Amino acid sequence: MTTSPRWLDEDQQAVWQDLLTVVIALPTLLDRQLEQDAETSNFEYSVLARLSMAADLTMRLSDLAAQCDSSQPRMSKLMVRFEQRQWVTRRPDPDNGRYTLATLTEAGLQKVVDSAPGHVERVRELVFDPLSAAQQRALGTALARIATTVRQQLNGTEPETGSLRSQA
Predict the structure, then answer these.
(1) 89 has which bridge partners?
(2) pLDDT, tens digit, for every residue of 42-70?
(3) Contacts (Cβ under 8 Å, ≥6 apart) of 126
């Protein structure tokens, strides 16, 4: 017996279309701002920003890739460009030589400091200013659930039984 697809209802279709607009257009708008103001991309900025928030400005490349939802090869290629710009240094992890550590340099930290004000203003303008505080909290809750499912699927792991659905 073949079951019919679970089609989206009208409200779900409207939400899905709005989400597509955000997923596709928001990165483009953030890239435009960062390229114009800081000569960097949104992805590059997000990697630098994560390093700037890490203890000792240092992270394992594998952890950095995971936190930035990037593949390790993509992150390695980016690190080569960052080293050429003298924004990072790389070295083997002294605790486990199978890993590589990336450390943000003074020049890299300055790039984040210089780029952050315009980027944060653009994020506020596009994401937070149109929402009330309650809407921001609801968005955060909803996105956290979606992001958890997406990350689990990317990692090939199954969600904990019932954990996401029971909260819905």
Answers:
(1) 103
(2) 999 999 999 999 999 999 999 999 999 89
(3) 26, 29, 30
* Residues counted in the chain: 168
Amino acid at 31: D
∠ CA 159-60-92, nearest 5°, is: 140
CA geometry: angle 42, 121, 141, nearest 5 deg: 75
- Residue with structure tokens 């550590």? 101
In the predicted model, what is the mean pLDDT of residues 154-167? 57
pTM (predicted TM-score): 0.81
Q: Is residue 103 within a helix (H) or strand (E), and if so which, with residue range? A: strand 96-104
Give the separation between CA 150 and CA 129, rounded to whole angstroms.
Answer: 26
Identify any residues that bridge with 91 across adjacent strands, giving them in sequence order: 101
The two tokens of residue 27 are 């990165």
Q: Which residue has the tokens 């984040």?
A: 112
* Nearest in space to 62 (alpha carbons), one of 46, 45, 79: 79
pLDDT tens sequence across 75-114: 999 999 999 999 999 999 999 989 999 999 999 999 999 9
